[in-house]
Write a structure and sequence with these properties.
mainly alpha; two-stranded antiparallel ribbon; 70% helix
Amino acid sequence: MIGNHVPDVYAAVLAVGGVQGQGAGTVEAHEEAVKKNPLDAFIDFQPFLGPLAAAGIIKGVVAILTATLGWTAKNNGVALVLTAAGDGFFQFLPIMIALNAARKFKMNDFTALAIEAALVYPNLEASMTALGKVGAVNFFSIPLGLPTGDYLSTVIPAILAVWVASHIEIFMKKITLDFVKVFMVPFVTLMIAVSLTFLLVGPIANTASSLIGSGLTAIQGFRLILYGVLLGVQLRLLSLLPI
């Protein structure tokens, strides 16, 4: 009987067989993974580039239908279904990113997905607004806030959230007793990671994203050629990250 040691035995079997597990691994492998820079997670974008492109093409089809036939999600069933197919991937992009980042940093896939699901929780912005009306937009007296448009379709906050969570998870694996590890590790990781993301990680990531975007927009306004060069360099650097 191996009981609560199933994850450890599973990881050992994968190591012996030379198989790469998803969302699992030894503590040592996990530690090695979380030492990497968060930007390393960008290299795992390749697995969903195909579906991402497909969703973009579908959005293009909807645009053509709207321009030529006047079909929209409000007046035509075909347009509604295609709009959902095209927008869904982009709408919940943080969840897609979470899966890839979790595999990169070798943390539990579903814990990472649960963290990102909290960021795209339905009506989050409306709930924040309602709390604001009664003066309760805080987390134990620490002010809460959301970026414009919530965290839907965001990239950097999603990656940083999983990176932070991977550090919390490895720490909890070290200090948690085996017989409660299966639920205690994800419980603490989820609680702390989601809280830190809303209070610290998310705002910092969005501020950085806004500054980069504002800088590029400013450059675009007076030096269009330079803007194109910088944007191209940025995309090229991402594509050259080692796989």
